[in-house]
Write a structure and sequence with these properties.
The complex is a heterodimer of chains A (about 425) and B (about 325). Chain A has about 425 residues and is α/β, with parallel strands linked by helices. Chain A has two domains: about 35-145 and about 305-350, Periplasmic binding protein-like II (D-Maltodextrin-Binding Protein, domain 2, 3-Layer(aba) Sandwich), CATH 3.40.190.10; about 145-300 and about 365-430, D-Maltodextrin-Binding Protein, domain 2. Chain A contains 17 helices and 17 strands. Chain A has helices at about 1-25, 50-60, 75-85, 100-105, 115, 125-130, 155-160, 170-180, 195-200, 225-235, 250-255, 270-275, 315-330, 330-340, 370-375, 390-400, 405-420; strands spanning about 35-45, 60-70, 90-95, 130-135, 135, 140, 145, 145-150, 190, 210, 215-220, 240, 265, 285-290, 305-310, 345, 425-430. In chain A, α2 links the parallel β1 and β2 (about 60-70). The longest helix of chain A has 25 residues, at about 1-25. With about 325 residues, chain B is mainly alpha-helical. Chain B has two domains: about 1-60; about 80-320, MetI-like (MetI-like fold). Chain B is about 70% helix and about 5% strand. Chain B has 13 helices and two strands. The radius of gyration of chain B is 26 Å and the shape is flat. The chains are: A alpha/beta (about 425), B mainly alpha (about 325). The interface between A and B is large, with 53 and 48 residues.
Chain lengths: ~425, ~325
Amino acid sequence: MKSRVFRVAATAVAVASLASLAACGSNGSTSKASGPVSMEFWGWAPGYDKITAQWNAAHPDVKVTFKQIPSGGKGGYDQMTNAIAAGKAPCLGQVTYNDIPQMVVKNALMDITPYASGDTGKYLDWTVAASSAGGKTYGIPVDTGPMALYYRTDLFQKFGITAPPATWDEYAADAAKVHAADPSVAFGTAPQDAYDMAGLSWQTGKPWFGTQGTAWQVSIDNPGTQQVAKYWQDLKDKQEVMNNGNAWDPNFDKASEAGKVATFVNAAWAVPGITGDLKDLSGKWAVAPMPTWTTGDKTSANSGGSATSVLSGCKTPKQAEQFAAFLSSDPDAVSTGITVGGLYPASKAGLDNPLLSQPNPYFGGQKIYDVFKQSAANIPTTWVVGPTFGQVEADYSDAIGKSGLPQATTTVQQKTVDKIKSLGLSVTGG
Amino acid sequence: MSTQTAPPPAPAPARVVAGSSRRRHHRRTALSAAGFLVPFGVLFTAMMLAPIGYAIYQSFYKVHRQGLFGGAQTTEFAGLDNFTAALHDGDFTASLGRVALLGVVQVPVMLGLALALALLLDARSARLRKTFRMVFFLPYALPGAIAAVMWSFLLVKDLSPFTGPLGAIGIHTDFLSAGWIPVSIGNMITWGWTGYNMLIIYSALQSLPAEVIEAAALDNCTGWRLAWHIKIPMVRSSLVLTTVFSIIGTAQLYTEPAVLAAARIPGASNKFSPIMNTTLTASQADQNLAAAESVLLALVTLVLSFGLLKFTQRKTADA
């Protein structure tokens, strides 16, 4: 009697668990495309969801579903590569220029040269180059990150700084002035990771990577990077810049609200970060050109910026490429990108978007995009991205926490050479 | 597998049964045992054995790439190359050392605290027993990541409620500076897990035979002496169990340092623990090396936990 009850229960449990396993297995394999095409798009930039909705409204036969994922370096790329390995990858993914080569090495991106060849002329040349690898197109450029100096007009006035610093020497002099007047106020934020270091080093015109035949050349530890590293380490040592907290860290927001930080140097896409997080400071921030290393020079830099890539395994690459091109070049999509995401367009036509010549009330009515336009026109186009940016990023953040910026740069150089070797690619130490 | 592991024969029936019926009875118990074991067996194989086997398999292979971007990739047997590479990776070995040091300091502190709290709760004079048990256990109910975020706000220099008062009495510390981070992480783990370990020890204390405690009391052995001479030796096995759990937990440390690293706190290394190293390696297109690192970590953990178990068993046998 008792044993029969047990047996029934055991069988029920067994059947239930097998059924749930089976349910797991069959999930998702029902997307056999017949009639209208549907695909997924994974990304994290603000505004992509709205642009996707605009596409869907105009293209009832190709339905795209946007899924918000963590930004690439924070696990987004791992989600994409895991999904590819599981055969359940989305057709489209946001990939930053920094990460396209390593995603190609991971076999995660599809060569879309045949579909994109007619489109590539519409975008800035260097963004097209940054979205390619080995002469093949792996993404449609969406935005760039022309850099500028964000500064607090009220604090500048308070400390008697009449004009934003035009050179890094002036920046350091202003920092010293503010520190002398009130040591609790930081003049800016020190670079904390590879993104910051790459942006600032880009301006020196000395790229971190190069290629010679089929071998990578690593030159992260170059005179340009060292100039940047020594400059900021000096400001850090004098405690004239915040050495913890970057724009949008709670730390930065708090310091900002308390009037304890006067500037930061970052890309155009930083705009929604401050306007969203620091609403109360409306009218107090302004934008000026990024300081330069020599007087009269206008050389600027790029930080970040993304392309839309078609991921390996996509069954409808042609439609996927069409969506990517829409996201990057459709006038309404570009407008949405600018207003919601602060995305500075990589498309040549997009640069004439009327929104880019409008005054911005948050910035006291300043036409901030005039500054970014000038910045974008002065970005050196010699920058080359290496095949292991994830590792460079991880090692830089780690090394900056353990030692000064110049030493960290030397450490990262060596670790990058080792990592490229360990991936089985050829490399020279530059 | 599961059909062969029949349970020990049922207790002998009072009445002698005929041979064939006993055999049938046997078959029936074997069947129902199998019914119980199959779901577990299937899940265990699919979720534990297969991934472990796959990781071990992967750790012996290496991907060969060509050109600048890998080109056509081939996978070849690599022997122990990945293991040598992992052991030559300074970041990985340093992280092993880091969690070892953390374990040596933090685990005794946490278990000492857990034992003390359990004994206090178990003491005859304890009041509001249920409330305190709840309160001590509560941190464990909070997901680890949320607790880590909470602590990172409590400890970060400019937001921390502690730095102000401490600064007023002349102590100026940044709990999230490189030197303090291991201590802060130890604090987070202790906060999160003391209640859990306390509960295990407390249930062992609760199941001690009342007559033993009473006999001790009759011999005038109470309070501190009762705890030291009677209770602690009798809950020895749960102390060993919690120690083994804690060693495994420390070796697999991830959440707390990962939250700090994700918050971009300078000095919070994204390579703090072995698993963080492995995760990074895997996300950098080096699955085989990551597999070797995981296997090494598993081996170290196994040796430590089983070593401790064997050691304590021998000591018990000696005693």
